[in-house]
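assembly run, all chains below
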Amino acid sequence: MCAKTFKGGIHPHDYKHFSNHKKIEKFPAPKKLYIPLIQHIGRPAVPIVKVGDEIKKGQKIADASGFVSIPMHSPVSGKITKIGPYPHPTGTIQHAIEIENDGKNEWISKLQDDEQFMSLSPEKMKERIQNAGICGMGGAGFPTHVKLSPPENRPIDIVILNGVECEPYLTSDHRLMLENPEEIIAGLRIIMKILGAKRGYIGIELNKKDAITVFKQMLRDEKNMSVVPCMLRYPQGAEKQLIYAATKRKVPAGGLPMDVGAVVQNVGTAFAIYEALRYHKPLIERITTMSGSIVNEPKNLKVPVGTPLSQLLEFCGGTTEDIGKIISGGPMMGFALPNSDAPATKTTSGFVFMSPAEVVDTTEAPCLRCGRCVDACPMNLIPTFIAENVKNAQYDAAMKLGVLDCIECGSCGYVCPSHIQLVQWIKIGKIEVNKLKLKDK
Amino acid sequence: MNLVNVSSSPHLHEHVNVRKVMWTVVIALLPALIAAYIFFGWRSIWITILGVAAAVGTEALVQFLTKRPITVSDGSAVVTGMFLAFNLPPLTAWWIPVVGSVFAITIGKQIFGGLGYNPVNPALLGRAFLMASWPVQMTTGWATKLANAGVSTISGLKQTLITGGDAQLQNLITSATPLNVAQQIRGDIIAGTAGDSARTIFHQLSSLDYIKELFWGNIGGCIGEVSAAALILGAAILVYKHYIEWRIPISYIGTVAFLSWMVGGIDGLFSGPILFHIFSGGLILGAFFMATDMVTSPVTKKGRLIFGLGCGILTVVIRTWGGYPEGVSYSILIMNVATPLIDRLTPQKPFGFRKKSKK
Ligand code: SF4
Ligand code: SF4
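ok done. output:
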């Protein structure tokens, strides 16, 4: 298979074997759910229910607060019991709506089957996506309708579905691709129609050969859609790296994919888009991987948004030994959580549990100037110098070195023999540089 | 529930650390040490052990006296000691490696704050110090397997000498390394003061037969530079492990190859014996092991190419016109000093960077 890739990057051990053969299991909705008002990049949603309200499954419980925001819907029928601060899978505390599940599973209105959805106008399609509260399900969670509304002067000719899933441990996209390929392709077709794009690609890493085969098979008669098998190279699933692998187009530094006529959507998002258009189904559940060497029974679960992690872990039989670290998302870019209270959200691709022995030593030694971080950086930055400048509060210099171009992929930290917390320093640098920029304005 | 660790991403690590890198370098140097034993005998091992012991002892002592954590187990002092010894003639005085290592560790490394902060390669600094202070001990004591020194292991060369009957030449050849011989007779030939036998010797030195001897190590030279084959084997380990990167060695050796072809011959421009220059002297050792020293070479990719280029130019200049036949260690030292500047002058453009961002 002739696989595509990009320059730089690393090759972490992928640990997919824990869960890549596990069929997606439906997780029964728990007694209590916690729906964070912010599950995406943009402005938090505003609650439109109050404590004590009876609600139905699929009912909108919080509204978008502007264009770059999405509404939230209830994954169960039941009662609102609290609205207030609650642990969030980014490791922070955010406002959330607490719902007590009545177990009746009553939909607000029966799901309709709209077989004619492809004849909707792009505007209508986008409206339905927006109303369904869909955001990018790969990681950052950018509101999808915004991504599908590029300015007039940025025509989009290609759409790339991201099925790369390059983070170690995660297998939720992999399973979805194996189990729902038709829906994903339908989603791609919708996105292409909305954007008027001529070509569609599905990027999949070579460690998912079965998924590549499935899509190759299904797309063999399609003229304008194809699979892009990608080399095993982290971070192949980063937008800019994926676009480069598929098309050789380079997204300008500081720019967006649309600057080169491309839009990237996660395969899970495509699936959600399809469900929203065909069935008017809001985004109330997602596939989440539960994995790690100490999880008794790693699984891929279809999880109602708002389900606390502790319940998911229990469903997987708990852990075999003490927990050293809990990561929400993948180990390369995910957040470490202080406990297992936080719920799964629309962007939760997985939870990884590590034993104390697996936790990476974070004592920093002096930089050896070995340049390994430079060679690993897919954005061609000089991580060691950026970190050094941030440590010395030289934010101007850090900005000149392109700190804002860092995609926080963690490749540099992964290879550093001195265990320097490069990404952490860079994150601090970004915050400081952005502060400086605000001041200048 | 127990408090779990909440450090920043990435939460996985390649499991490399200084200790692993340094000890791998030590292992990678072992083939060359074995070659040294085969060609020069026990004395070379002895000198190396003295160098390593002095380096490790000095590091521990300095760290103890300055009340810093003692880090000798990270292997970096062992590497320095080995590098220093590798740059010495096998029959040099026993105290030479000791003095050199003490100097290398104290002045070359610990004075700056230890590993990671030293501006130049400590071993090379130690060697430069020895060279300046005890030039005689540093340039005599060459040996070969046949014990009678020089390049006389090639039968043809011997023959030439006998028939040529040039006593001065014979003297020269039995007391030095091949590079030394080449440089001197080349100078004489170009100045017109040498006879035909000198010309023949030069050609023999660059003949394929002799290059083979160079490659395997059947020649006179420093302890660690003797066998190109053994060094390349060790370097391959480091390349495979991604502990050294191709840019510096390739640009260094490439530059030496090109320039010595251009100016290193006796028949005008572009007649130089390329392979002779690549495999003689400390080039292979220098290019793969010393120039690639992480701490003292550039971190930027372009910077590493420039670093190698600079080393290459300086090496050929010193070898061809310098007052001393071997240019590798001085070249690397000089480029070490230039490293911060090179890094500053070669910023990398972020992926997708465009000169003028059109808005
Ligand atoms: S500097 Fe940023 S983009 Fe580069 S390797 Fe590190 S985290 Fe990734
Ligand atoms: S990888 Fe670590 S030690 Fe090496 S140059 Fe980068 S920051 Fe320094």
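Residues 137 and 268 of chain A are 6 Å apart (CA to CA).

The mean pLDDT of chain A is 93.

not gonna interpret more than that til we talk
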